[in-house]
Amino acid sequence: MKIALIQASTQIARNHLLFEETKRATEHLGAEVFNFGVVENEENFSYIQISLCVGLLLNSGAIDYVVTGCSSGNGMAIAANALPNVICGYLPTPSDAFLFGRINQGNCASLSLGLNFGWGGEINLRFTLEKLFEAPMNTGYPVESAERKKRDAARFKAIKKLAQTDMLSVLTGLEEELVSPIFRKRELIDFILENATNSELTAFLRAKIK
């Protein structure tokens, strides 16, 4: 399992903590965790731009799961869910994370990295990530409703696929000013080009970084 970590520029100070806690929470899965920032001395990226990075990582096939966040976590979740093939949970508490990890068959978690992140905030973050990645995932919950929950998750994915366009159409339909900073985030783009399974998307990216 390959997990990417990437958060909005407003929460640069939380990047290292989020990276370390994600590694800790997924160690039992044998997961590889890749940190794509945002860190100091980078361009500033809004949560909208980072959500596009999330979409690129998942739609390219280079990554299986993304852990992200912004000041509240809510804006990032909404923006990420607007993108094709991204199912993002807004997870302010461990119980939210546990239910999302069991029921919704998601591939992205958005965390609150500013709002209510006071004394003991790192403890809530740790427990939230632990409950999200607690094995086994995607089993349905509660047990007596598990099969129905799994059917509903599959139906939601089908609706999302019918209701949304593809990632390439998203990137080409947006103004250059919004998307061009993403193509300059070379660590992320190079990783996608080396690990992606979506040849159409990688061809587009190669053309953009020439």
From TrEMBL:
InterPro entries: RpiB_LacA_LacB, RpiB_LacA_LacB_sf. Signal peptide: none annotated. It comes from the Bacteria. GO terms for biological process: lactose metabolic process. Pfam families: LacAB_rpiB (PF02502). Keywords: Isomerase, Lactose metabolism. GO terms for molecular function: intramolecular oxidoreductase activity, interconverting aldoses and ketoses. SUPFAM superfamilies: Ribose/Galactose isomerase RpiB/AlsB. Belongs to the LacAB/RpiB family. This is Sugar phosphate isomerase. It comes from Lactococcus protaetiae.
